[in-house]
Known about the structure:
The structure holds two protein chains of two kinds. By secondary structure, chain A is an alpha/beta fold. Helix content of chain A is 53%, strand content 10%. By secondary structure, chain B is an alpha+beta fold. Chain B has helices spanning 4-14, 23-27, 50-62, 115-124, 141-147, 154-157, 192-196, 230-242, 255-265, 285-301, 313-324, 326-331, 349-362, 389-408, 427-446, and strands spanning 19-20, 43-45, 67-70, 87-90, 97-101, 106-109, 164-170, 176-180, 205-212, 219-227, 249-254, 275-283, 306-309, 336-339, 366-372, 377-384. The interface between A and B is medium-sized, with 30 and 34 residues. Chain B: It holds the Pfam family FAD_binding_4.
Amino acid sequence: xxxxxxxxxxxxxxxxxxxxxxxxxxxxxxxxxxxxxxxxxxxxxxxxxxxxxxxxxxxxxxxxxxxxxxxxxxxxxxxxxxxxxxxxxxxxxxxxxxxxxxxxxxxxxxxxxxxxxxxxxxxxxxxxxxxxxxxxxxxxxxxxxxxxxxxxxxxxxxxxxxxxxxxxxxxxxxxxxxxxxxxxxxxxxxxxxxxxxxxxxxxxxxxxxxxxxxxxxxxxxxxxxxxxxxxxxxxxxxxxxxxxxxxxxxxxxxxxxxxxxxxxxxxxxxxxxxxxxxxxxxxxxxxxxxxxxxxxxxxxxxxxxxxxxxxxxxxxxxxxxxxxxxxxxxxxxxxxxxxxxxxxxxxxxxxxxxxxxxxxxxxxxxxxxxxxxxxxxxxxxxxxxxxxxxxxxxxxxxxxxxxxxxxxxxxxxxxxxxxxxxxxxxxx
Amino acid sequence: xxxxxxxxxxxxxxxxxxxxxxxxxxxxxxxxxxxxxxxxxxxxxxxxxxxxxxxxxxxxxxxxxxxxxxxxxxxxxxxxxxxxxxxxxxxxxxxxxxxxxxxxxxxxxxxxxxxxxxxxxxxxxxxxxxxxxxxxxxxxxxxxxxxxxxxxxxxxxxxxxxxxxxxxxxxxxxxxxxxxxxxxxxxxxxxxxxxxxxxxxxxxxxxxxxxxxxxxxxxxxxxxxxxxxxxxxxxxxxxxxxxxxxxxxxxxxxxxxxxxxxxxxxxxxxxxxxxxxxxxxxxxxxxxxxxxxxxxxxxxxxxxxxxxxxxxxxxxxxxxxxxxxxxxxxxxxxxxxxxxxxxxxxxxxxxxxxxxxxxxxxxxxxxxxxxxxxxxxxxxxxxxxxxxxxxxxxxxxxxxxxxxxxxxxxxxxxxxxxxxxxxxxxxxxxxxxxxxxxxxxxxxxxxxxxxxxxxxxxxx
Lengths: 428, 460
């Protein structure tokens, strides 16, 4: 256990952010976790009240507060609709860091973040090994979705329908790349993100195909590291800052117009969370982060807003329903662009589901810690998807794809889960 | 309350998962939306069904444990702040709409049904539940009835109390009580539902409420009128009513609010205007046509510098966007938002606005005023930082003077937010000693041990 005085000081640093909450309780209408549990501690107002209680020493149970704070998808629904503009997710990330410093990082997380994630080469080797042995640990569960279950790991993974690791990671096929701008006159830096590298390699391939098609140059530096969100969500600022540094070394000051990612969470992290968490860093790094963050863009947004992809009038073809990832829609305001991309070829048309913009319940490690709640939220999303009778559900975030696949596969639904860039690429 | 055997008794009754005793859980139910200090309860329990409400109350009464009922915790006067070490009963899980009867036009609901969800379920059956408090997307029906919540449609359609036909509740001893009926007429016994409405949890705990429904209006028309003076806007309000027209909404915004909303939402409001009226008439299409034209004429005759009549749903939406964003635009200016609801006879609105300006100047406060001009229920909203003691002291003085100002004009302390803890101390000024004593006699008779939300409304 750490220094209580220091914890109070760290929490007082965010006191201005906390003070903006007027306890109106309107976040109850949008919080997916609260909708399941109806517990005040699960909604933003309740968490903010606990942090104020702790920092003003009305309560002392820091572990208890941390426990409540961890039960949050970080979906940002509360921030997006807060009448007084409270940046709840920013508060939670900063508070998790302060509380984790106080309570200490669990040994497992320490091993994952400090021992593995911050050493990309080791991380890659471990995952590579995992992909070779995963056949032993898992059994095929759903041929349509290509998912497996892992009975031997059921204590950790439950009955999840998991998407297997790629036999050859994307970065192994494409260790690095640097092609000049073509007819578009644009050059992007490409940040695939961990899930695209290690599971959804098809998304990475799709991005390269689309860039080539539009004459966009691609700068894909070696040694990219995780965006840092998993570490930060667990309050591990030390690992987060190391990961930011590793990535800055790859991208900072290099010649490109836009940094694109096909992962909504990576995009939101690079674009918004990095500058937000950089406040305590030195001036030089803050400038580097600000310069890089300003160039970050979601792949859908880049193709529509910069390259000029347009929807085909009266798009018909197969029905696709689109799930708005929280970190794309609510965080970055990107709603129309992926829909435009899907309808660009005329081979697909969008059939909107009810509540397309509500969270799928994934929430990164939330899914591991609170699988039951995560599944309840996910099943509602699944019901909305199935109700559209669309053959395909597209989205813009590999983490959402994992959750949607788990939800649909466990019910035996014949609905394909795709990234919008994959649908677009296959029509070129 | 700390007695373990008692906690065990609640666990036996409700199951351990419905009894919360940790410090964090108790902290989470120590506050509501009023700007008041939190008070830690000793225990938080969740009834699994309406019968549990009676059992919980019985146990509390036998053991002298104060009980505060909580729905969505959106109360603006501290009515849901518990007693120190007392018990909080959460009714937000009791969410069943038991019946929506189209032939007899009523709905029967459990206490935790969310207002907007009931309204939309009722609308799906072609009927209308009009009360629309600002917190309707989260507030519960029981909370609305316990506070007699109002909303934008109060002028024409009335407030929560006008829709309560009957109810079932449990009294302090846990005894089940039924009152009212599904029929329009009912004079069977005392009007206990009337007594229970606006009682802020002091007389009993609702287990089921029967609400009146009405046919929805077939048409509506919205408009915005811009004024160079508050007087002209207020004269317009009086003239509309004098012309025997009752708009369903008749809302007011002062210059400060107009500027703040425009800064924030960029909806094209005239920032130089001294006042805005947002008006909507509804009813039969022919009547709406006539009344809208007449209202437009009245606005012009009373000096409106500009009138904008919404021609379609999109324009209508834009007119109301300004009003919908008013509170949140103001709330973003400073950390603390004190939302008052002192209400005056509508003819006194110009005096009220002038008085509020004077109070703001006297105590160096930032006050934005908007609200329901048609029924005199304005919302002077004080923007401040409660952490600044000196400023907070000025706010407290200002609030006190707002109450005095409203009472001096024959108005009332609270139009729709309730008395709770925040205004209990000012009650005597409005209703007099005798009324408080009478209320206390009733309270003592129905709750001799004073366990039901003690300290609210009548103090003590």
